[in-house]
Amino acid sequence: MASRSREPRERAPRVSANRRGSPEAVEKRRAARHFNEVVLGPSAPRLDGRTEKKRQRLLEELASGQLRSSGRSLKPIDVLLRVHGLLELGETIATLRRSCRLPKPLPPTAALIDSVRRLHEAYAFPIEAYAFVGIDEALLREAGLLDPKPGPASVRGRSAKSNAA
Fold this sequence. Notes:
Largest sheet: none
Number of strands: 0
Helix content: 40-55%
Distance between the termini: 93 Å
Radius of gyration: 26 Å
Number of helices: 7
Shape: elongated
């Protein structure tokens, strides 16, 4: 009977089944992305497949007013989050207005005004997003998010130079 030696064996380096993580493969992907950006230019849409699927899902949920996964109706905060996400992905307000109808404006109450003020401080949603939950410009003015005088450039925080342009 042969006895096994207790000497440690040298192990061969493990080679993964695929080479996605190898430095060569990573560099190839980076070079290909850079090449595509240079050839297509800055006007090409920069959404990858997953981001485009997310954009489509958010638009679908906003249009139907329900979550795709559970069928539960969207709460007002869900609507604001979807509108905000779509705006960050490059959608325009006009596109969003075409995809879903805006609700009737809510009557201003002290609780609603305070709630909108607190929500805006916490999330900093775009002013235009509030229309998708029934909050109009008058209520935004009362909450202090818009300047008291109505006008096209009345969003608080803009400088006088950007208003004149």
